[in-house]
Automatic annotation (TrEMBL):
It comes from Champsocephalus esox (pike icefish). The keyword rRNA-binding does not apply. This is NR LBD domain-containing protein. PANTHER family: KNIRPS-RELATED PROTEIN-RELATED. The keyword Zinc-finger applies.
Length: 250
């Protein structure tokens, strides 16, 4: 709760290790996009982070895992800041905000990875692209398979930036846990659903919001596999994880 509130000094800093909390992204709303929710989400989308190569070991596979975990931790910090910009999110209690973040943070991050990964490589960042052999060597073969499957689904739909950012927000709002204030969560979900319907109604070729929503279960399965993979590597290979990242996975 304290981290969501942003009360601790370490999470108040405007920059840390190249992280900018409310930096503008390169994605701008298209000229024809009149939906205020989607335009706002695109404008507040954090700029992509670059991976910081870990140099604490000469073992390439271990270095890959450590580099990836550091990147995920910094992306998680940005996601917490971005979530507060989702219309209706700040109206939730701090407990419910944390509930949604703990439930959907990995899903929200993997939407971007799967959407960017158009080829055989997984694009975690522009300078961190992992192919199947690299993932297998790092103990992430199961994650590679799951993310490639999800990426193929998104490619088949030719997912747009507007749809990707909407799916990211909906992944955070889609929780199975019981909130303290169900009515506030329902308003958040209804607002996102309405924005998605408006977006789909304006699409050339007809709406396909149902296909996007039907991809959420696969996204959740992929996120679960990602968490299991990282925790297994953490425990079996004693790979250190940032405290916040570890707490969010447990």
């Amino acid at each position: 709760m304290d981290r969501v509130r942003g009360g601790r000094q370490k999470y108040k800093r405007p920059t840390e290790s190249g992280v900018t909390f409310y930096c503008r992204a390169a994605i701008s709303p298209p000229a024809g996009c009149r939906n205020k929710v989607i335009s706002h989400l695109l404008l507040t989308e954090p700029a992509p982070l670059s991976a910081t190569q870990d140099e604490s070991t000469n073992e390439s596979s271990l270095s890959t895992v450590l580099t990836l975990c550091d990147l995920l931790n910094r992306q998680l910090l940005l996601l917490i800041g971005w979530a507060k910009q989702i219309p209706g999110f700040a109206a939730l209690s701090l407990v419910d905000q944390m509930l949604l973040l703990q439930s959907g943070w990995m899903e929200a991050l993997l939407v971007g990875v799967a959407w960017r990964s158009q080829g055989e490589e997984l694009v975690f960042a522009e300078n961190l692209r992992l192919d199947e052999a690299q993932c297998r060597a790092a103990g992430l073969a199961d994650l590679y398979e799951a993310l490639r499957h999800l990426s193929a689904k998104y490619q088949a739909m030719n997912m747009s930036p507007e749809e990707a950012v909407m799916l990211k927000a909906m992944a955070l709002a889609n929780t199975d846990a019981d909130p303290l204030d169900p009515s506030s969560l329902q308003r958040l979900q209804d607002g996102l659903q309405g924005a998605l319907q408006e977006l789909q109604a304006s699409r050339v070729g007809g709406p396909r919001g149902g296909r996007l929503l039907m991809s959420l279960p696969l996204l959740r399965q992929t996120a679960d596999r990602a968490v299991r993979n990282l925790l297994r590597i953490h425990r079996e290979q004693r790979v250190p994880l940032h405290r916040l990242l570890l707490e969010m996975m447990l």
